[in-house]
Amino acid sequence: MAFQIDCIRLRQIGMPLVHFFETSFGRTYERAMVLVEAVSSDGVSGWGEVTAGENPFYNEEWTLSAWHILRDYAAPRLLGKKLESAEDVDPLTRHIRGHNMGRGGIEAAVWDLQARLNGNPLWKEIGGGARQEISCGVSIGIQNSIPELLKKIETEVTAGYQRIKIKIKPGWDYDVIKEVRREFPGIKLMGDANSAYTLADADRLRRLDEFYLMMLEQPLDHDEIFDHAELQAQLETPICLDECIRSAHQAAQAIRLKACKIINIKLGRVGGFGEAKRVHDICLQNNIPVWCGGMLEAGIGRAHNIALSTLPGFVLPGDVSASKRYWKQDVINPWVEVSPQGTIRVPDGVGFGYTLDPAFLDSITVHQEELR
User: Apex CA 20: angle with CA 15 and CA 22, to 5°?
Assistant: First the structure.
């Protein structure tokens, strides 16, 4: 069903985290996020969330750059256009070089809008539905001490999470994982380096093989596929690529070069559902398991990740966890909850499946703008 977008509303919100989240890039205490509302000519709204961080550390994007890209470049290319499908968003914005998270936020909003116009859950609209419950892992940032980390892991294991991911960096790696394995010998455990190492650290990383990790995520540079291929050849531990994979083409290159054995798919990093599905399909064809990564999303982005995780290739527990792990209050109702078995029930509601909390949303809005 063709539709036209007559209005795009941008909204920047500020949400303090329940607990700081630290990676090799530094600590985050509060998220500044951009929400996108795409409104059709008959007044139906779809919502997307831009997953860029507050600073250009994970990639080149950040909150304010995403706002600029959306307002001045992406939105004008969609307003007033007759779209046959949300698939049309990508070709209309693809010549904006990079800025996948900004482009992905508006593309996700249009997918949600299309699902609502068709009366479908978002997961059905994107071709998902391989499962009605998704398996959940949890990501734990770098802590002040190993005992603090062990306490957090105990909390999450008790809560039922099926996989534990811990952030690592030089100086917070071998000895830390050794203690975690001593305390929790049977858990599914992975380490996420966020590009903190180089090939010169190959011997150091090879020592992690003794801890039978599920995977080692993005140990080397954010744009380096060749060095990852060289490193993977030296490791028993599977490498999972994250920052390196921004497109289906790069996923195909990495698989061909044997640079990894697993791929993390993040909606924002690849530019939205269309490209995420293409990455997924290439991995599925090559028997490369995938899982859904997280970027400290609020409820809208979290709901989109749930929908994405229903595609058949998402066979590993993702970073989609309960709202209460991050927020004192979420922007959706009900909040995303995880069962004692470490799963999230896929919502059946139209669109992304949850209801927005407009009063709370207004209370945390820093800035907004309407484009027509």
Answer: 120
Q: CB-based contacts of 172: which residues, under 8 Å, 6+ apart?
A: 142
What class has domain 125-355? alpha beta
Residue 358, Cβ density class (10 Å: 0-12 exposed, 13-18 middle, ≥19 buried): exposed
State the Cα–Cα distance between residues 251 and 15, nearest whole angstrom: 33
- Where, residue-wise, is CATH 3.20.20.120 in the chain? 125-355
Task: For CATH 3.30.390.10, list the domain ranges present in the chain.
Answer: 3-119+357-371
Rounded to 5 degrees, φ, ψ at 264 are -90, 130
Q: Cis omega before residue 56 (within 30°)?
A: no
Q: According to the model, what pLDDT value does residue 66 have? A: 97
Interstrand relation of 365-371 and 3-23 (parallel, antiparallel or unpaired): antiparallel
CA distance linking residue 135 with residue 353, whole number of Å: 18
What pLDDT is stored for residue 6 in this prediction? 97
Given a contact cutoff of 8 angstroms between Cβ atoms, the answer to whether 364 and 15 are in contact is: yes
| CATH placement of domain 3-119+357-371 | 3.30.390.10
Cβ atoms of 15 and 332 closer than 8 Å:
no
Which sequence positions are flagged as catalytic?
A: 167, 266
CA–CA distance from 173 to each of 176, 203, 208, 233 (Å)? Answer: 5, 13, 8, 20
Supply 117's token pair: 């116009």
- Token pair 């993390």 in the structure block, residue: 264
Q: Can you tell me which residue has the tokens 């909606």? A: 267
Task: List all residues 6 or more positions away from 285 whose beta carbon is below 8 Å from its beta carbon.
Answer: none
Count CB-CB contacts under 10 A for residue 293.
25
Phi and psi at 35, nearest 5°, equal -105, 145
pLDDT in tens, 291-330: 999 999 999 999 999 999 999 999 999 999 999 999 999 9
> Taking a C-beta distance cutoff of 8 angstroms, is the pair 214, 190 a contact?
yes
Structure tokens at 136: 């959940």
pTM for the full predicted model: 0.95
Mean pLDDT of the chain: 96
